[in-house]
DNA sequence: TCCATTAATTTAAACGTTTCAATTAGATTA
DNA sequence: TAATCTAATTGAAACGTTTAAATTAATGGA
């Protein structure tokens, strides 16, 4: 059922119930004085009190539209999650995104900002999605972008041109000079693989995520950093999943069916790791005795499985906080004065029973 | 690090780059004509084309603030998730919320509406949180409310008074006449318990969620419906968790330590269920041979564990879609003409290996 | 007491749309 | 062709704020 809202003429056109005019009248001051007083910008103490009382009595709330129109600030920050163009939305499953959204919303709210959220498939054309529309239309004061996949940033030039505050979370290209926050995915993978190799390993399986997924790529690079130096008596196999539990399970079924099955598995995310665990258990392999497994992210599934999954924590809540702070820093500075700023979030190994 | 955005004077006050005025000038028509043409409200074909071309050439996007101010419609729908006042945010973990948000955002976008998201702890006073502010300030055209817990609806009178479109997801009190969508939690629990009882059971454990959680309550009632009719040769024990994996695990440790441990467990959500499973496995109990377990929700953790968890599916994506549709129906009708409307979403048993 | 400052207040002009009412152009009929 | 009707276009007034500039009031020093 689709509604064409543009043709909805019947509905309630809710005019502001109580405007600044009424507050001013009740407080017996001019509209300007009322405006100033309410925002604590000027006025004598007595007037401020008088106006505040009047506003409270009438239940006055400033019209966001009028304020935005005049001030040029919407007090809204947009989160734009770019999703997979192939239509498979691994992210649908991800508890992570809610944590991220919540951290952004919490941090924004402290500063009296709202949060707008938008999912944009990568294959939707620039002029058909809402990112640039929102920016040009003044919907948002700042944008937090989560590209996820490694496609060309069609939006970057326009964003830089308009000078809007932005922060890219886990950008694909860190050589560009951007406002960005990145989880140190490379270090995360290095930590995980190093942990696996801290005990004797005969066959190490590396399970990558989607090939064009930015974080998966960097985790792959991190794993490669370590395995490159490995002696010949450790055999290594590389596998590609798509970040889902099911893909992990299928890979598990392939690798555990062989005679010389892996005794150590690094998975680029926790979903695949638990899928692999399920397969291992079904193949009557004991974890961690027969096979040791390390995942990535510290998603809640880590604590669901038996034994619990050792993993590298990706502190997603912190990323949201930092992203919003970056936006506010940009907003509070003269546009000219800002230097680009790239932050990195450290990876932390969380040891549990699977390893 | 906190920023007082109210004192940020240095920042960019981004005026609209290209306004309707410029478009009208380029197309050589009046502003009114341009406005009408762009919204396809009137005008000859030739004029429409001319205006559209001009708009495209200039990269024109209507100012959301100006449009909202004049039209009284913001084209934004707000999601307000009420969270636990005790500070324990079970929801932080929930992959469910992201699915819900995404479904709302997807459905809203089809109708050119944005989605604002806000978390409101139940103990924050009415005039200190953003719900009523957003409504009175015209931020949103409609609100989707997720109360989660059973506290008095301080907002309801005001919402009804302003006549804003709203939809309450899983309201506590279904006797009130509301716009609402509910998952049939009672039926869900009945389905689950009935499934457990379809084979011989000696000791049935029922694990409830937080006592004041709306859905937990109804699931408890559903379970009670079935157990009330049970013969005396089945012993029943009741336990209270808080919807987290850890609370399930602790309950598991208690119930599986006893001699006459349960051979069937119903858990009011999947997180607790997998926690219970972990405990069972650690107590060397085989699932489903020694103990059969059924959860609720069909969260992703169901597919993470071994064996996979049998559960009752809570189609959260559908709930988001229905909520938005309810909002749009209200928006498209004369305010007077609307009859309240309560929809229920059916529960569906998903049989997997744990039962 | 008067003048110079400074603080408080107000007037009025925006901000960029939408829409009513009025005007003009175009089509149709007698 | 004139008269009538309809469609297209436009001028101008809002919507509810913010803010620069102007005005008025209050304060202090000589």
> What oligomeric arrangement do these chains adopt?
homodimer
The pair of chains with the biggest contact is: A-B, 93 and 93 residues
Percent helix of chain A: 25-40%
The secondary-structure class of chain A comes to: alpha/beta
What does the average pLDDT of chain A come to?
A: 89
Give a short account of the largest sheet of chain A.
6 strands, parallel
Q: Which outline of chain A best applies?
A: elongated
Q: Unreliable segments of chain A (pLDDT under 50, ≥5 consecutive)?
A: 1-12
- Cα separation of the termini of chain A: 50 Å
Order of helices and strands of chain A: HHHHEHEHEHEEHEHEHEHEEHEE
Q: What do you see in this structure?
A:
The structure is a homodimer of 355-residue chains. In chain A, strands 2-1-3-4-5-11 form a 6-stranded parallel sheet, with helices on both faces. Chain A has a 4-stranded parallel sheet with strand order 7-6-8-9, sandwiched between helices. In chain A, strands 10-12 form a two-stranded antiparallel ribbon. In chain A, helix 11 links the parallel strand 8 and strand 9. The two termini of chain A are 50 Å apart. Chain A is of the alpha/beta class and 355 residues long. Chain A contains 12 helices and 12 strands. The N terminus of chain A is likely disordered. The radius of gyration of chain A is 26 Å and the shape is elongated. In chain A, helix 1 packs across helix 3. The longest helix of chain A has 17 residues. Chains A and B meet through helix 4, helix 5, strand 2, helix 6 and helix 11 of A and helix 4, helix 5, strand 2, helix 6 and helix 11 of B. Strand 2 of chain A pairs antiparallel with strand 2 of chain B, so a sheet runs across the interface. Chain A binds a DNA duplex (30 and 30 nucleotides) through helix 2 and helix 4.
